Every structure is written in structure tokens, then in C-alpha cells.
Amino acid sequence: MSWFKNRKLLIKLYQTLLNISLLLLSLILAYFLFRELYYIFNDILLENKNVHQIFGKVLIFFLYFGFISIIVQYFKENYHFPIRYLLYIGITATIRFIIVNNGESSHNFWLAIIILVLTISYIILPFGETKNG
What we know:
Blueprint: H1 2-45, H2 51-76, H3 83-100, H4 105-128
């Protein structure tokens, strides 16, 4: 019986450490989010003519925003990351990568294949979920 009690205590300790770590990570990401927003406004006010540079900063801003929203969703979903949100972040991050990095067409082809696989996974995900309770 004491093994079971120690196990529950250890799980509770790890859950608390995870929650504290995610809260700290969200604060750090919020700092970087607002810093990126400052850089974007600074470029606009200084009339930076390099549109690709500004666009890259906007996409980075949305990456920070996406990671913060996934942490918020973790707490809303009773301490677990739904796989659909991770797939959504993967799809959007890959699309952003293609937009910002105008690489070789063969790299873009493979990234498009990755987007297709992630999208198919996102679509078929509800069919694999079990309806418990």
C-alpha cells in the first residue's frame, strides 16, 4: 500500500513541476511575443522597406502566439495536450517556414508532402478517437 501511495505522490510532484515549468515557459514566450511586436512596430515607424524582413518578424510573432495558445489549451483540457492542436501547430509552422524561406523547389515539395501528411492525420484523427464517457 505504501508503494501505491508513494507512486501517487511522485506523480503529483511531477505534475506540479510540469505545470510550474509551463507557466514559466509561457511567461518567457509572452516576453518574446511582445518584444517581436515592438520590433514590428519599430520597423513600420522607421519605414523599413524590406518587406520580407517584416513579414518574417510577423510570422515569428504568430509562432510565439501559437505556442502560448497551446500552453493555455493544456490547462483548459485538464492537463493534457490534445494531438489535434499539435498537428495544427505543425501544419501552420511548416507553411510559415515555406513562406519565409524561399528555398529550393525540391525542399518545398517535401515540405508540401509533410503538410499533406499532417493534414490527412488531422482529418482522420476523429475517426480513431474512442468515445469514453
